[in-house]
Design goal:
Helices cover 63% and strands 8% of the residues. By secondary structure, it is mostly helical. A hairpin with a 2-residue loop joins strand 2 and strand 3. Helix 3 packs antiparallel against helix 5.
Length: 246
């Protein structure tokens, strides 16, 4: 440990105080809608992420090719943690889901249901719901199915279509399985996961996004210099040892 160096120590203290001062301001409700900086930035990046995953129009085009192709399949909706009431509710919700999509649903007992219907029509109904959820139109789901928990109702698409996809993969019906997987990953999941978040395009927030990234890099480097000056000021520096002659 070397001797204390006042200049470096002073710089280290100043840099640290500035860093802490900015950090304090970041936790104040001065940003966005009375949010702190972290909540504001998190909401912004979530909005930008949502704006970059709107693939429903492209997925609709793929689904159109399956209009007229009949899906005839039996799936199990039962989960290990289900109570009898949970299972009955899930069966009732899925029955309503597929019936309104034009399919016939038969309760086979013990959590199993049989679905027979036009695959393209079923997936079009799923995409219609996904589009409503993506644009935060939960009331559309409530009115369509007469169920007040729109997220729980919409989640049934994910549960059932995922089960159908697995069954089709086992049956080696790759084309049907692939289009269902596309609907789940490119429409159902974004609609559910980002529900309630306003989508934003990177193009409309380019300046703000660039500014935030520059600030993040600058702020990180600033803290690095603060630590460096403090260590140097306190004499906590390392030096290469001299080579000993043998």
């Amino acid at each position: 440990m070397g001797a204390t160096r006042k200049k470096e120590l002073t710089l280290g203290v100043v840099f640290t105080l500035v860093f802490v001062g900015i950090l304090f301001l970041m936790f104040q409700p001065y940003f966005g809608r009375g949010q702190n900086f972290l909540a504001y930035a998190d909401e912004l990046f979530n909005s930008l992420a949502k704006g970059s995953v709107y693939f429903i129009p492209q997925t609709k085009t793929k689904v159109e090719k399956f209009k007229g192709k009949i899906l005839d399949i039996e799936i199990n909706l039962k989960k290990p943690t289900d109570t009898p009431q949970d299972l009955q509710t899930r069966i009732a919700l899925n029955t309503k889901l597929y019936t309104l999509a034009g399919a016939q649903v038969e309760d086979k007992g013990n959590g199993k249901i049989k679905i027979v219907g036009d695959l393209g029509q079923i997936l079009s109904s799923a995409l219609e719901d996904a589009d409503a959820m993506y644009w935060n139109k939960g009331d559309f789901i409530k009115e369509k199915y007469g169920y007040q928990d729109e997220k729980k109702m919409f989640r049934q698409w994910h549960n059932s279509l995922s089960a159908i996809n697995k069954k089709l993969v086992l049956e080696k019906k790759a084309e049907m399985a692939q289009v269902i997987n596309d609907v789940v990953t490119k429409a159902i999941e974004p609609g559910y996961n980002f529900y309630g978040i306003t989508p934003e395009s990177v193009k409309t927030k380019y300046g703000l996004l660039t500014g935030l990234l520059i600030f993040y890099v600058f702020y990180t480097i600033w803290w690095g210099f603060a630590i460096m000056y403090l260590m140097e000021g306190l004499g906590l520096s390392t030096k290469k040892g001299k080579k000993k002659e043998v």
